[in-house]
């Protein structure tokens, strides 16, 4: 069976792409499906909603096309080769949807290509009929031998994992450790800023590759789409699509967030694309692929994205601690940590975590496997460093998993196998030490692990905390979030209530922060609210929350602690001043 696609830019200003699909079938009837989701983005997307006018380009008597399910079409061609065409509408500016405009065209393959049911093993080909008005085409797919404008994948997993970008923007190239990189930056960004990004990115990928002991990729494509109100990334085997809002950039904090995003997506080309939980590949593209191990896939990646910035020098140690503090605070502010375990957060990602923008109560009932998974990974990393006297780290486990499961067994691993490999590499029973924070809704005592490298926590001066958040709607202040971890949980206040007054003062969009600042934590006040047209009076007791970063470096720690801290801060780099008594053997 052979499958070939031809793409036509068709009407980019109307966000339409035309796809022609040629199929040499091996049966009388061929069932064609469109995926319902994209690996790396764990939510059913119903991509069939944007597929229109599926028809033969040339029909014969007795041939027929019928849509038999929301995501399936039955093509009857009496076993003969057939060609169909269809239109794809793409105007959703995210990393996991199509976006076709006159500025550029980003083809997200799972949202674009019908494929023969149960035949993900086929080697699909794709050609462009017409690139106009674009000059360049970027993709991680390999060109078909002897062809200028045809690309071929070794199976549909690779095909769906290879976005295609048409643009007039020329790439910036750099290389690191034997891999060629293309960086395509979309958006109105000055040349000097583009140069800075590519220079910093080259340092990040080089640091990652060295520490991970090499990369299998000979080519990697970064697409960086800079436009208003964008944030997100999606990883692929030899590419990543990254979106970032350039407003306020290059403010150093925003800039580091951008580097973290790029660092995160690049580390995924090991962790999740190669080193992966068993449920995450090969995929069933029609239904949710459930796993309890997203704390490995996303949590460990989230730890490493910032940690690599620390190792590269993009973060100073204190800046790194400030970032870590924000993550700790996010969990402490939420009641979700006592409701949902890391495994539950992962397993239900499809319906809960990915729907959190539409669930203002999520912070009270759920946690992020990114944030908590990163804190767990940091704790594991520090514990291993301490117990092995700096000889081993979480990096060694990742290298071993890559070798053992991706390269040798060519499959994913179970949670039990993850811990077995960890034990083999470090000699430590990490399951015994950490499993309770994975399977139960229980706080990780991260301070205890930070203490191992002389990083301490002290209480900052408390600031007043109302326990609820408001947003402005047509000049009115509407309750948009309630923190059930705070004493406000005792008060009958609902999402959607209008907050009218605090004691006898009228609440207005411009003054509520200042009015609140006049109160002290522990004090009581009257709230005047409006709910469904009725005026209500409620009493509230104000809470407190930390006013600033509470993590600091103890310069008076014992020498052995300081030595371990130096290993943590400079992992993979031998340095005369920081060499610990134990010999380091990583980074080969
Ligand atoms: Zn990720």
Automatic annotation (TrEMBL):
<dbReference type="InterPro" id="IPR036034">
    <property type="entry name" value="PDZ_sf"/>
</dbReference>
<dbReference type="InterPro" id="IPR027268">
    <property type="entry name" value="Peptidase_M4/M1_CTD_sf"/>
</dbReference>
<feature type="domain" description="Peptidase M61 catalytic">
    <location>
        <begin position="258"/>
        <end position="376"/>
    </location>
</feature>
<protein>
    <submittedName>
        <fullName>M61 family peptidase</fullName>
    </submittedName>
</protein>
<feature type="domain" description="Peptidase M61 N-terminal">
    <location>
        <begin position="4"/>
        <end position="167"/>
    </location>
</feature>
<dbReference type="InterPro" id="IPR024191">
    <property type="entry name" value="Peptidase_M61"/>
</dbReference>
<dbReference type="Pfam" id="PF05299">
    <property type="entry name" value="Peptidase_M61"/>
</dbReference>
<dbReference type="InterPro" id="IPR040756">
    <property type="entry name" value="Peptidase_M61_N"/>
</dbReference>
<dbReference type="InterPro" id="IPR007963">
    <property type="entry name" value="Peptidase_M61_catalytic"/>
</dbReference>
<dbReference type="Pfam" id="PF17899">
    <property type="entry name" value="Peptidase_M61_N"/>
</dbReference>
